[in-house]
Amino acid sequence: ADQNGETLVPTHCCFCGVQCGMYLRVDRGGKVFGVEPRNHDINRMRLCPKGINAYQQVNHPDRLTAPLMRRSRDEEFREVSWDEALDYTVAEIKRIQQTYGNDAFGLLGGASLFSEKTYLVGKFARVALKTRHVDYNGRLCMVSAAGANKLAFGIDRAGNPFSDILLTDCLLIAGSNVGECFPVMTQYVWGARDRGASLIVIDPRETAIARTADIHVALKPGTDAAFFNSVLHVIIEEGLTDEAYIAAHTTGWEEVKAKVAEYPPSRAAEICGIPAEQVVQVARTFARAPKAMAWHARGIEHHSQGVENCLTVINLCTATGHIGKPGSGYGTITGQGNGQGGREHGQKSDLLPGGRSIMNDEHRRQICEIWGIEESELPRAGTSMMEMIWQMQRREIRGLIGICNNPFVSLPNYKVVKEGYDTAEFHAQFDFFLSETAANAHVVFPVTTWAEDDGVMANAEARVVKHNKAQDPPPGVRTDTWVMCELARRLGAGDKFAFADSREVFDELRIASAGTVNDYYGITYERLEETGGIAWPCPSTDHPGTPRLFEDGRTYHPDGKIHMQVVEWHLPMDPYDDDHPMSLTTGRTVAHFLSGNQTRRLGALVEQTPRPWAEVHPSHGFRNGEPVRVVTRRGSEVFPALVTEAIRPDTVFIPYHWPVPTAANALTIDALDPRSKIPEYKVCACRIEHAEKI
Ligand code: SF4
């Protein structure tokens, strides 16, 4: 403590997958009241507007400090004791499961939770609720990249650390508004450019990084696979492939080669709405660079062919030998703070801890032994987040607990989402603010913010970092861990949930991941404090971790090869017609985070960006601020126009952090990628009209 009795608690920002280091300032009364920069090697003292303001949520007047309950949605909430809220929730779980079966109750987690809590979400669903229906909001985030990574490399994480970006000669960023969504990562992007690297940006919008790129390809939304197939076509035609690398390290090359032969630049130009020369320019720049890297994010992943889009980028890196070297490789940028770690340890419907498959008998046996249950008791795979909503609409899932998510703003096709929740007979939500989704629940459990508990997150580099508790929770507030353990105890599974704190959960997680590709065994809280972060796999406590993958030329498939995959481009799921000739695409803005439940309450961020807008090209004749109605097959809403040449004339952009009546996700389509089940947020058919008023 300093002379004023104030202390600085080293921790990390709760927003976004960069996971910048920061200090939280704690006053002599033990309350968080500010933030200080921290010279952590991820961010070197830098923080973005979200990071600077994050601390303001901790003691915000909107914090929930008592459980809320009502037996019907027609009633007002009343504050109740923890016992009453827990007992009512357990009674409803038992009533629904005894009447309709265990799978009639579901659990939806979140990827902003610490990994310890995500581990508990998966275990709580399978062991206490005994349901197959558990999934999480990372299903809306990075699962397409995850699917592609597993298919190609047998491991689900970025191949290189951020610091490799500074070593590269050519950086390709596809579908990522880095400057606004991962602001501090921009230091690496512009650092590389300042050192002489070429910067290629693939994005329908001229974002901040696109403006500074050597090549900006403003392709039509939903055409990424055609573009990357065509880039590879040119690389092959011009003899720029790394044949020795391909021969030694890959499978599937001949099939990929045959497919991309069907994508000459003239075809890409027609599909993507770009000059054919740009395809050639990208191909030459990327393939000729001695070291090149590709990073992508939701822009290419939020599609009904999201997995395939990612695979076309992997094919590009692989065919040019740009894999697994300092300054050469491939990465995906996670959106949520724990977007990476949140999917590794079992809250995803098809996975068990350590990235094990819930359908693999050997994997099931291993986890049942750790959890102390019979294999026959462990449910099999359930469905994905959006599919669970459809099941709620059909009354197949009748009760739900949500933890750390806000689907009323974040899921596509709001009408369907609302109907699903309204059809559910019982819904409980854990949150620290009354989100739009929590406001529709029967029970709301007030839980801790990230500053009131210890835990780990894995950032976009797969580097595990330690968050430290800076203050005690306000009276009446409990940790998500405590609530899950208490519910489990009342459901009769208390002996499997006897965790006193996060450390005890983490130690079980370490054991549950040991021996897998996703190995955390060697990572301890003490080591994280000492090192500032360790990248998994880390199989023993003297192992340094694995910042860069594939350095020995081997992947995590049994044959050690990169499995290249054939991709055929297809049209987006929402067809264009005379009534809906344009593309609507959605995304984030620098001042807000995901559903906005946190950032829409923080004064400086609200002042910076108080409301959403529709970005339209000047050719449509709108003036700035004039009302523009955006119409899709799901509905229509009116936004102020932001008239800009930074967007294609055939495309409209709306940021999605707000609820109805200005919710981008009231307009988006609930079409899913068949493999990753990610919704197609980044393209649906729309038209725009002049409107009377906003
Ligand atoms: Fe937080 Fe991400 Fe901003 Fe860093 S870049 S301060 S992690 S929101």
TrEMBL record:
Keywords: 4Fe-4S, Iron, Iron-sulfur, Metal-binding. It holds the Pfam family Molybdop_Fe4S4. It comes from the Bacteria. InterPro entries: MoPterin_dinucl-bd_dom (IPR006657), Mopterin_OxRdtase (IPR006656), Mopterin_OxRdtase_4Fe-4S_dom (IPR006963), Prok_molybdopt-oxidoreductase (IPR050123). Residues 6-62 form the 4Fe-4S Mo/W bis-MGD-type domain. The keyword Transmembrane does not apply. Residues 336-356 are annotated as: Disordered. SMART domains: Molybdop_Fe4S4 (SM00926). PANTHER family: NADH-QUINONE OXIDOREDUCTASE SUBUNIT G, RESPIRATORY NITRATE REDUCTASE. This is Molybdopterin oxidoreductase family protein. It comes from Streptomyces poriferorum.
